[in-house]
Amino acid sequence: MRRFSILTLVTSIFLLGMSASVALAQHFLPKTGAPSCSIALSGSTASVVCNGTLAGLGNEDLFIETSVSGSAVYQCQNQGGNTAPGQNQVLVGPLVQPTLISKDAIKNGRVTFTTNAATLTAPTTVSGEAAGCPNPNWTGVNPTLTVTGVTLTVEQPQDNLILTCSAPPPTLSSTFQFTNCAF
Fold this sequence. Notes:
This protein has two helices and twelve strands. It is mostly beta strands and about 180 residues long. The chain has one domain: Immunoglobulins (Immunoglobulin-like, Sandwich). Strands 1, 2, 3, 6, 7 and 11 form a six-stranded antiparallel β-sheet that branches. Strands 4, 5, 8, 9, 10 and 12 form a six-stranded antiparallel β-sheet that branches. The protein is elongated.
């Protein structure tokens, strides 16, 4: 009887220790902090690339999604080719770009990543009504795009969310570090 009790105790301690090692929390490394992103704007296009270092990961593929949303302001063009400023912001996106990181890239539970570029593009033209033009005979042209939000999600394995970071305005700039992340 005593053997069974000691065996049960040893098994319980082993399982408790295994549970603790599996429950390691994912986290950012102190020197690198939360992921950061770069936004490259060019008229009607915005490209976002994020990078960072995560620790406390398991030995499975890492699935990262970068979601970008924005709004565009158009010039109003009449049938004679004359332009005037539009009045409305036209929503663009969101666009979601996946990045897959192989489990082979994760070393000792750590990985440094760079996402695939998430490129958001405003339509070349929109209706005069959407752009806020004087009447329906006008067309919205020459869009100027602004990024209004970036969200980064990390799953390991895919469909098991381990991290969400978001950056709404006014934290967005050409290069920014996420200030709102939840594991």
